[in-house]
Design brief:
single chain; mainly alpha; about 110 residues; 2 helices
Length: about 110
C-alpha cells in the first residue's frame, strides 16, 4: 500500500514539473516568434523607405533645375511620404540637398 502512495505522489509531482517545463518552453518560443516578427517589420520598413527614397530621387532628377516645373524640397518630401506605404509620415525626416548651382529658383521658368 505504501508503494502505491509513493507512485501516486511521484506522478503528481511529475505533472507539476511538466507544467513548469511547458511554461518555460512556451515563453521561450513566444519570445523567439515575437523577435522574428519585429525583425521582419524592421526589414519591411527598411525596404519601403529605400524604395520611397529611390522614387523621390527619380522624381527630383526628372524635375531638375532645367525642367519646366523644377522639384522643390516640399515636392520631394511629398514623394517620399507618398511612396512610404505603411510608414508614419509624421516621423519621416527628409533632407534635400542640391549640388552647387542646381537648386531650383522660386518662380523661375526656363
Amino acid at each position: 500500500m505504501s508503494s502505491d502512495l509513493v507512485k501516486r505522489r511521484r506522478r503528481e509531482s511529475q505533472k507539476g514539473s511538466a507544467m513548469v517545463e511547458f511554461s518555460l518552453v512556451f515563453l521561450l518560443v513566444f519570445t523567439v516568434i515575437y523577435a522574428l516578427m519585429e525583425f521582419s517589420r524592421f526589414v519591411y520598413c527598411y525596404n519601403v523607405l529605400a524604395g520611397a527614397t529611390r522614387e523621390a530621387s527619380r522624381y527630383a532628377m526628372v524635375h531638375g533645375s532645367k525642367s519646366g516645373a523644377p522639384a522643390t524640397a516640399s515636392d520631394i518630401q511629398a514623394q517620399v511620404e507618398r511612396w512610404g506605404i505603411g510608414l508614419n509620415a509624421s516621423a519621416l525626416t527628409v533632407t534635400t540637398t542640391w549640388p552647387n548651382g542646381n537648386a531650383p529658383k522660386n518662380g523661375a521658368t526656363c
